[in-house]
Amino acid sequence: MLNPKTLLVSFSLLCGAIAFAQDRTISGKVVSTKENVGVAGVSITVKGTNTGTSTGPDGAFSLTAPAGRVTLQLSSVGYVTKEHVVEASQNNIVIDMVEGSQELGEVVVTALGIQRQAKSLVYATQSVKPSELTEIRDPNNVLNGLQGKVANALITQGSGGPGSGARIVLRGNKSLQQSNNALIVVDGVPLNNSTGGTLTSDFGGIQGSDGVSSINPDDIESVNVLRGASAAALYGSQAGNGVIVITTKKGVKDRLHVTINSGFNSETAIALPDVQNQYGQGTGGQITTAGDSWGAKMTGQSYTNFLGNQANYSPQSDNIKDFFRTGLSTNNSIGISGGTDKAQTYLAYHYDFVQGIIPTNDLERHTINARITNQISKRFSTDAKVTYINQKIENRPRTGEENAPTIDIYNIARSIPTSDAEQAETVDNLGVPTPTAFPSTLSSIYQNPYWLLDRTHINEQRDRVIGFLSAKFNITDWLSISGRANLDKTMDNGQNEVSKGTILWAASGGNYSISDVANTEKWFDVMLDGNNKITNDLKINYRAGAIYQDRKYDATFSSANGLNITNKFSMNFAKTPNVSSEFTQVQVQSVFGQLNLSWKDAIYLDASLRNDWDSRLADPHTYSYPSIGLAAVVSDLISLPSFMSYLKGSINYAEVGNGGQAKLLTTTYNYSQGAGSGFLQRSATLPIPGLKPEIVKSIEGSIEARFLDSRVGFMATYYKSNSRNQLLTIALPVATGYSNQYINAGNIQNQGFELVASAFPVRNTDFTWEVALNFSTNTNKIVELSPDVKTAALGGGFGRSATPVVTEGGSYGDLWALQWATDDKGQHLVTAAGLPAITSSQAKIGNFNPKSLWGLTNTVNYKNFSLRLLIDGRAGGTIVSGTEMNLAFSGIPEVTQNFREGGWNLGGVDANGAPVSTAINAEQFWKIASGKRYGVAEFFAYDATCFRVRELAIGYNIPLKSSNILKYVTGVKLSFVGRNLGFLYRGDSRLDIPGLGTRKMWFDPDMSLGNSNWQGVEYGTLPPTRSLGINLRITF
Amino acid sequence: MKLIRMLVNTNLQIAVICASVLCVCSCTKDYAEINTDRNSVATIGPAELPFLFSRAQKEATPSIWNYQIAQNLFADQYAQYIANSATYFPSDRLVIRMDWVGAAFNPIYTDVVPQLQSIFEAADPASPEYALANVLWVLVFHRVTDYWGPIPYFQAGVPGKSVPYDPQDQIYADFFTRLAAAVSVLKANLTAKPYGDWDLMYKGDVTKWLKFANTLRLRLALRISKVDPAKAKTEAEAAVADGTLAESPGDDALVLRSETGQDYNGLSVMSDWNEFRMSATMESVLKGYQDPRMPVYFLPAANGQYEGHRNGLTSIQQTEAINLPANNSHVGARWASPAFGGNASYLSTSQNVMATAEAYFLRAEGALLGWNMGGTAQSLYESGITQSMKQWGITDAATINAYINSTKTPIAPNDYLNSPAVTDIPVKWAATLDDQLEQVALQKWLAMYPDGMEAWADYRRSHVLKLYPVANSDNPDITNTTTQWIRRIPFLESEKLNNGPAVEAAVGLLGGPDKITTPLWWDKN
């Protein structure tokens, strides 16, 4: 006999109806055990039925369930899945969920947006809670907020102020000429993360914005980092450097939820150069009009200053610090979410305003986000989203060595008061400003930085639309088909205005240039997804799909080459306008298949295969790459000692291909404007008709274990990757008529170890304390370059301070520089005049990569209080301070105040090994060591080890009473936050100079000139900032 | 019913997938087009050749950014046309920055050779287009070989892992072969207009190109006059017989420059950087002679006078008031911006390639050597001075005559080192051969300004011209600047890295170590 109720339920299910005969409503709240706050977006289903709901932003839910005892199944990204029994009598409940990066049952988002249980993965991943990105923000770039939180992620901040592109390298550098940055994936689709111009040498330039810097952290629901190639294999070519998978928020069912977040941040410049304040403007110990600070001892004596006024010659210890301002930033957002069973909506608006520490430099960004998810029928659902971003950056500072505000202010003579320097211009009777003569250390390269602030403008405006439309149709219970169309279009308009009289950049009458760059990325995919139970123990899950990707870069650059009406910044006044265009298109079509077998929900086998057709390659344009992996949850298979709650091991092998670069197959002749009718020039790069794809092959093995009821746990991973067939540009003998050619060669090996561990020293309802540690090492070896080339320079080639190179047998990022010459015994050589003898060619002085990376987070929740403290660091590696090299020539750094009056014997020997007794003075020494622009970097090389208090957040959940007038308010959290609060340890200079000893690193090794592969030199970079702020989050 | 519909739908969906998969596999037919750069030219035909020739001309004489590091920081200083006044450049103290001086080497091979090669491949060897490319080839390569000695030459432009260096004597032999071939083609095509307006020097005027080619031939003949006097005489006399540059300014070789595309005059761009000044040598001679060209070549210093700067001062000496840029003479108005007292169109000033006057001084020296140069040494010397004056806009016959007959001599320049007069030779034609040779060398040196490359080569070859000893040498290979001078540039580090075996073999061709002190094949001093 069939139970009529069962029959009815079955019938109802079949017809897609959702009415039950005897229903009841269960409402309540899902809270996190850790922070004791509501968990949003938890998916709740009544076990045995397909009734379900999701929690709102405050964790509240309400659903209809059959009468009697029911079991609720809860799952959420970043949390352990849970079953919770609700007795017949319970209608209002609070369910807690355990949050955890490594926890059993955690659901993570993997490649192509596929959600999987963490325990079934055959590779290591690591999640970052979005709250860690929203509570404390790095106003410049959301990526910087990942610093210290992800094992084996080396993040260097771009030094171009707000919005500047950052560099994130997972598991070491793999590519010589291509980007080493991790792929950023948003909602299953790779994000266009190209950087609009970066610095590739120590001359400097403008560090452009990257794609990810315009993403608003408030929209992020989860972040998962796929470090290895196996995890990333389904993304294909762009994923060889690992992937950061970002999932954004969507609407939830039931009542309206509103989240308001307001933050306020103040940023101040720290780690400014250590300067001397004893000797003022002048040379040779005399007061002169030169910009150098080799002048007399400052005793307040009277002198005629550069403005022609009588003034006191006295130390101006704050004349550098005064230049920078406190950058005040605000972020405000409102998110509204709600919907019915059939349709949910998420709407959000964000407004960010970020002030840079360089006066006049601001970023303003509006983000509008709309997402609609629909369950159109029982089997058919859709998801659609549109994001519009409007971002404006004003007065982006130039950075690096040549005439940039930072290097210009650092070069100010030690006796020039800020008030004098501020008198940067005079305006003539035509209203045209002229720079006031300024005592510069190099009048043709540097100028008064206050002039730069007011009279040069590098502005950028970005309009970006990202949208997708996806649909899923459940063909049967076990088979579904889904499709997705995604568009990411970024339009960047750059304007560069340089007033007449500006050094280096101005043409006659001033100069003006415009860039219009459109990046359009289209992505279409279709995927068939099935799962079957073959036996009770053996389950199979499989996918097959196809992807079509099309990327276009279309740019027009216009330059005025002088303005006929002085300082009128429009192309209408251009003297000789010049226009050039660039266009690149890349199309990749792919098919892929993935198979996951699971046995007893404890042993998992994964395999995938992808084939790409890439327009960058020669006919037939195709290549394929596989991945395979095995994982075993030992604790589910055999019984382990009781203290051991979980044990899992996994191993995998993967290959990822990369199509290389567009337009390399054939010779081209490029046109340029000039005298007569212009020129045609054959490209100096020899084409590579047989271009092969780059292949990264990697293996990885991990062990994950947890003890004492999961209070202590760790995941340890070993990996090794070999990047082969690298697309290298190698220099050719120029006499061939070509300066370089592309070749496929090389074998770059990275191997390392990662440890992610966490422990709960205290875990009570009221009080939890979690300690999370990540530690990683990476060893890089250039196993092979090519039969013809044993050394290749990275980025822009020869450096005037140090040159980052790769050498066969060496490792990626060896730094070459001129050195203080030594004899066979290692004794330093000096000239007969007592000055250091310098080597004639650059040789290795170190490597820019750290040996290990560390991150330690302590999170404490006590009742309504929360505290999170992140300490991170990097150990090992070498970095050269080009800034100090430059300034030392001019007597500015603190170290140059020693031996001003002479009497300095370096204790060196001559070529015959005999001691040289000649004494020198500081000015003689530093002129040789520094060379100003072309120097001996060994004197300025530092151990790049650096540990710091990266983040501190103290939060308070304001308790709400139901009688409160704000009765709709469900949560208020106030946080006090700080970033970059202090350095705990910084390395010493590499060279122990007799008489001076070693010096502590004064700068921040995380601030990079740009986000290209040209790393290891700090030179005129913006100083790092310490930020302090408050954040208020209100949910309704 | 519903189930059936669903099944149909399912099958449809599967069909769609299969179709799209198939489509993916077959839709690569546009890939070649997608991967082609629409903003560049893929193939070269007759219509493109003139653009290639223009490009080769632009790069043949150091172009905008290369000018400084190819010539100004080296040859221009070694010729003592100018002295460095920037504290951070060591090259005036005889230090060779290998990474800079590559600008005199690399662009020739990558920016000139490919363009000329395309022309050689496409044009008829009997055509004037081919002949012009040949002349330009010799012009650029004699500059390269005169910096380094052996250079990659006969295999230049052939892709491969290595390109051999060739001995300088063979290279010079080929120069003469090419020039002779070009001259015979040009003589047969006097009315042709090769490249027309794309020719940035003479707008396709074959008669002028013929004179230019002959003057180049004459210049090279004198270059080898000490090492191979017989060949020198033959080539020189053939060149003069076919007609050398005769009348300034019409015959003067200049390459057009333009503000369009930032195709600027390299010297003008550099003048804005304010890093070099009139040399004390120039001051001594120009002031001593009260030379009418002085206000053309240079601008007055802050004190209203023409002030020079000794070559080779240390960076600390450079900071002394007397040596500051403002207190010394900047390059002339032709190349300086209005901010320095120059002219508004200074950036598009045509770049000097070869002066008509040089042809006369070459002939004067040939006449002193007893060659048939179509005139007496004195008349050719005086014509050279006249042509140079005309080139720089001094046309008054009385002024020119007074100068030619002047007995004034160079003076002490009143500089930081209290230097004496650089020499004591007057302008007026002297009585002895040695003095006459010095006069010819000195007037040629003055006339060729600002072509430091040729002036330095000529100084090394003749060693008759008097220059000041460089104040300080930071180059360990030169310890005495009175008896030693830079005779060549060492082989490039980049070449050792990328063309190593060829460079090693090249050292064997040098006849001495790969140092600045090893003389070139034609340098017999």
Give a verbal description of the structure.
- The complex is a heterodimer of chains A (1036) and B (525).
- Chain A is mainly beta and 1036 residues long.
- Helix content of chain A is 6%, strand content 47%.
- Chain A contains nine helices and 53 strands.
- In chain A, the strands form eleven sheets. Chain A has a 22-stranded antiparallel β-barrel. Chain A has a five-stranded mixed beta sheet with strand order 10-15-16-13-14.
- In chain A, strand 5 (70-75) and strand 6 (82-86) form a beta hairpin.
- Chain A is globular, with a radius of gyration of 31 Å.
- Chain A starts with a helix and ends with a strand.
- In chain A, 54% of the residues are buried.
- The model of chain A is unreliable at 1-21 (pLDDT under 50).
- Chain B is mostly helical and 525 residues long.
- Chain B has 22 helices and six strands.
- Chain B has a two-stranded antiparallel sheet with strand order 1-5.
- In chain B, helix 8 runs parallel beside helix 10 (206-223).
- Chain B is globular, with a radius of gyration of 27 Å.
- The termini of chain B are far apart.
- The chains are: A mainly beta (1036), B mainly alpha (525).
- The interface between A and B is large, with 88 and 93 residues.
Number of helical elements of chain B: 22
- Span of the ends, CA to CA of chain B: 107 Å
Oligomer: heterodimer
Main sheet characteristics of chain A: 22 strands, antiparallel, barrel
Instruction: Give the largest chain-chain interface (CB within 8 Å).
Output: A-B, 88 and 93 residues
Radius of gyration of chain A: 31 Å
Structural class category of chain B: mainly alpha
Put simply, the count of helices of chain A is 9
The 3D shape of chain B can be described as globular
Taken as a percent bin, the fraction of beta residues of chain A is: over 45%
- DSSP E strands of chain B, number: 6
